[in-house]
Specification:
elongated; Hepatocyte Growth Factor
Length: 127
């Protein structure tokens, strides 16, 4: 079963580019949609924005924005989903700690029998 788990990880890395960890904070990136709270606050940092997200059970991801881009104070958007990040200079985004933990736990589990069958089928393919 171990070789299949390795193959699954390898296929995931190929599909997604370089491997990333669930708790990675992505500087110069943001996320669109699913915003349910906007917070503008003097001296707000990306770490404070992440902490606000972690303290809110609805939050799945967050986006911090520099003050120069908001027109007043730094901003923090809390999102109820984790949309795909996109390049956005002056912003920082990350996932909630709860979502990161769930992703890490899922990455550690062994493939199900159905997944193993699918992996074997791709190895036998018509190539």
């Amino acid at each position: 079963m171990r070789p299949l788990a390795g193959l699954l990880c390898g296929l995931a890395a190929l599909a997604c580019g370089a491997p990333a960890f669930a708790d990675d904070v992505m500087e110069g990136h943001a996320r669109r949609g699913a915003v349910y709270a906007r917070i503008l606050m003097e001296d707000l940092t990306p770490n404070a924005c992440a902490a606000l997200c972690d303290g809110d059970g609805q939050c799945q991801s967050w986006v911090w924005t520099r003050a120069e881009l908001t027109g007043t104070d730094p901003g923090c958007h809390l999102l109820s989903a984790a949309p795909t990040p996109y390049r956005a200079p002056g912003r920082v985004t990350g996932l909630s700690g709860q979502l990161s933990d769930r992703i890490e736990a899922a990455a550690e589990r062994a493939p199900s029998p159905r997944e193993e069958d699918a992996l074997r089928a791709t190895l036998r393919g018509p190539y």
